[in-house]
Structures are given as C-alpha cells and as structure tokens.
Amino acid sequence: MQQWQIELQNCVRTVDELEQYLSIENKDRVREVLANMRLSITPHTLNLIDFKNPNDPILLMCVPSDKELRFSPEERVDPIGDEAKSPIPFLTHRYPDRVLVYATFFCSLFCRFCFRRTKTGEATPGPSVEDRDRIVQYLEKHPEVDEVILTGGDPLTLLDDQLEDWFSRLRSVPTVSRIRVHTRVPVNLPSRITNSLIEMFRRYSDATHPIYIVTHFNHPREIAAENIEAIAKLVDAGIVVRNQGPLLRGVNDDPVILEMLFKKLANIRVVPYYLHQLDLAKGTNHFRVPIERGIEIMRELQGQVTGIALPRYVVDLPGGKGKVPLMHRYTQKQTDSNYTIESPFGECVEYHEPND
Length: 356
Ligand code: SF4
Fold this sequence. Notes:
Shape: globular
Number of domains: 2
Number of strands: 12
CATH architecture of the largest domain: Alpha-Beta Barrel
Order of helices and strands: HHHHHEEHHEHEHHEHEHEHEEEEE
CATH class of the largest domain: Alpha Beta
Bound molecules: iron/sulfur cluster
C-alpha cells in the first residue's frame, strides 16, 4: 500500500475521532449534519489546523458545523444545474466544446461548503464500466467536444489502474485534445502526487494533447512544504496547473489574504484561474459573501496584484445557465466616441473610439 493510501485510511471520519482534537458541544446536531454531508479530514490537513482558534480558516473549511442544518429558500439541491444539462449519467454537457465527467464522488477531504454535496455528501456510487463505455460513445458522437473535464468528487482519489482506464479510453477518442482534472488532492493529500502518477500523466499527454490540473487552494496557509513539492512535480512534468476556489466568509474574504494566496500560488507556478462566488448549495449560506463585497475586494486587488496572479471573479448561474464574470464597472460611455475609464488607482481617464 502506498503512503497516500495509508493516509486516506487514517483520516478523521467520525465525531468521536474529531473530539480528540477539539471539544464538540452539540454532538447530536453535528451527527445530524454528517448524515447529509460526511466527514473526512486528511492527516496532512489536520496538521495545518490551529485547533486552539475556533475561527481558524482551515478548520472552518473542514470541521462540520450545525450551521449546515440551516437552509435558506434560495439554496438548491443541484445549485448549478449539473443534472439539467446531463444527457447521459455521469456526464454534464453545458458548453459546446467541453463536458464534465464524474469519475467518482469520493474525496480525500469533504469541504463543508461543497457545491456538489448531495453527491459527495454520502457514498454515491461512481460510474460503472457500462457508464464509462456510454460516455466514450457520447464523445465519439460529439466531435465538437475537444475537452473533457474529469471531476467528481476527486478523480485523483481513484487508484492508478482506474485512472489509467479513464485516460486510455478518453485518449482513444481522436477529437478529445485536452483532458482536465479537477482535484483538491494537491491541497489535502499531496502524497498522492506520486512518481507513478506523474509517469501516467506523461504517457497520456504530449505537445498537442495536454493534461491540465485545476486544483483548489483557498487560503495561503494551505500552501505548505509538501504541497509545494507536489506542485513542483506536476509542473516539472509539463502539466499546466491552475487554481480555482470560492470566496468564503471568514476564510478568504479579505484582500490581504487573497493577495497572499494569489501571489504564493504564482510563486509555485500555479496560475490563479477563477475565484468563484459561492454556489447556492443547501446548508452553505454561512460561507456566502455578498457579490457586492466580492466585487469590492477584486477592485482593491486590481493594480495591486500582478496580472499573472489575478484570477477572474465569476458566478456559475443557477439552473445550468453558465458562468459569467463579476466585475467593477470601469467604463462609462460619455458620447458615441468617448469613454471615461477608471484607472486601477481611481483616476478617471478619457479614451476615444476610432474615427471610422
Ligand atoms: S474537493 Fe471538491 S467535490 Fe470534494 S468536497 Fe471539496 S468541493 Fe466538494
């Protein structure tokens, strides 16, 4: 058994195990929470939590709270309409050129704000061999799809053989150029980035058929020595690594924290890609930051943070309607040929349109 598998076996998964680290007052309520959204905290992440601080940002992201039992009317079981845009099981086709494929609904650590919690929250079975065959047939019939996003859950919690099955089947479809893997393993279980996994990525990618990793760091303290090592292995193997994650109340809704996060990511060669407005998943309202505040934070970071480290702030619209950027309004049209545009430093500057 490999180190990462041993660590997975040693995750904190029950209220009693959690109690070895902090005292839990309302155990019954927390057990009620776990009936809908299971618990797992990896040993790596346990070591990063400051259990003396009840507001520790890493603790807030992974320790269950009875606030998850409070539902607001706008919250949904399927907040971004994955099901509405799912022509066959385990596949979502929302945009013309790419599909999401759910390889598993298991994760090494279950984030308390998970937007797919109705699937990840309990032991939902992943795709069978027949489901996988159906997915490959779908891709063969849809040559307009040139990118497959392996997601879940966390695909990198699958064993190497299982992952190899996915990669070899996906690479058998000539119209699929890019394979993207959405994973939080480089954050919570960095030992999973083994040499054999890197070799597999090399086998299934080349100069025009890349594998992209999109990972999910939310706070600068999540970037520890082991994480830096895991990312370096990926980038040194030619894998492009990007980061996306939500704006979370009490965790990273602060321009100073986000600046540190984005710059630390850029320093370890991870491109900050998206900062998400939190989806309307049931029981996550306590993590949600108002859009107005999110826009304000990004306005503060514009000009302050180098463009190579500044992600786009986006919202995934409910009902599967797609993702759009949220941003401060910099431009104002004065006349047909004249704009006033706000500079990063707050100055108003005139800009003229071309004459013809
Ligand atoms: S890693 Fe992603 S899918 Fe898994 S619990 Fe966290 S947010 Fe949900």
